[in-house]
Amino acid sequence: MSLSLLHNSVQDFINKKVNESIPKLALQKNPFPEIEWITILNQIEAKAKAKDKLPTWFATENIIYPSKISVEQTSSEKTAEYKANLVSGESLIDLTGGFGVDDYYFSQKTKLVVHCEINKDLSAIVQHNFNQLKVNNCTCYAEDSFDVLKKLNKKWDWIYIDPSRRNDAKGKVFMLKDCLPNVPDLLDFYFTNSNSILIKTAPLLDISAGLAELKNVKNIHIIALENEVKELLWEIHKDYFGKITLKTANILKVKTDTFEFALNEEPEFVNYELPKKYLYEPNSAIMKSGGFDEVSSIYKIDKLHKHSHLYTSDDLIEFPGRAFEIQNTISYTKNEIKLYLSNKQANITTRNFPDNVETIRKKWKIKDGGNSYCFFTTDKNDNKIVLICKKI
Fold it and tell me: What does UniProt give as the signal peptide span (predicted)?
């Protein structure tokens, strides 16, 4: 960590250049010869990435940033805040501390937080930033978390782990055993240190694959930010053998849409109908959950087809996803498409349909955009149809 970055003149320069092009800046002369130009450019680029993702860091003076990749890979403040609401008690140890965003929020929920980060430079940066952010109850250890657990030798209310894929795991199916730390192998050791463990994984991990590798799972959280799935959270409790609840959250600017159901329990109600007045498309977190029949059962709305994952009703409901008013339902035939869509403008979505969006646009000369939303899908009678809709 270069303390020279904290000089007022350097910080002023970084703040003034945060919105400028890095390639253009790279061609300029370094006004601070005592600091490597690439180091200053990295601060500018990383801070620019933090503007929306980490507004608290962005707005705080004298923050030092690690590589831009570390900023890209870290939790956003919004997802970190969600995680913090899952924990409680006196103490939490983060075995894979990284840039410390999660721990900043954990420190607001527990009295003691320990941040383990084997990269000494990154650990020093996090400790410095915690001082700037006035976090007084988080201690940083620049050591392997396995050794820290043994050295501190105490019972923690929570252990938090964000395993990273090993470099030699590239190209393989995403498995937890291919990550560092190897949570499946170390789980029994972790349970000697805490009864409650929270694991963050990338959305690439298949839920059934995760369940095959882990035990004592109580809740699985699928977290999306503005309809993009960002992470899976696995709540594990020692000696727990009850039902597993799958919880989805789509964090939006003004609200968070949530949905939950018990895994492997048959839904009470699933009905298939032809399109009615309104159409519903689940958000990405629900799509990742696979709880398609549960959506129909819980919201008492009809599915268009077993594999279409679109829903319909005569009365408009509050729904965790997009809602549309169906203006027209047409058959996927040459005459119908030519009459209603060919050479026109529309937003296209396909669900359970043989052609992709690009093929449909090219084939029927449909331009992108506009106020019309068209769903190319299959109805309950296995007929290919197009729903022409207006977004609500």
Answer: none
Q: Is residue 306 part of a domain?
A: yes
Owner of token pair 């923050």: 63
The residues, ordered by sequence, that sit 6+ positions from 216 with a Cβ below 8 Å of its Cβ are: 236, 237, 238, 239, 240, 241
Domain span at residue 310?
A: 278-391
Instruction: Report cis status (omega within 30 of 0) of the bond before 181.
Output: yes
Is the CB of residue 312 less than 8 Å from the CB of residue 304? Answer: yes
- Three state DSSP letters for 256-287: EEEEEEECCCCCCCCCECCCCCEEEEECHHHH
How would residue 340 be classed by pLDDT, with cut points 50, 70 and 90?
very high
Query: Where does residue 122 rank: exposed (0-12), middle (13-18), buried (19+ CB within 10 A)?
Result: buried
pLDDT single digits (tens) 115-130? 999 999 999 999 999 9
pLDDT, mean of residues 156-168: 89
Residues 66 and 84 both lie in one domain: no
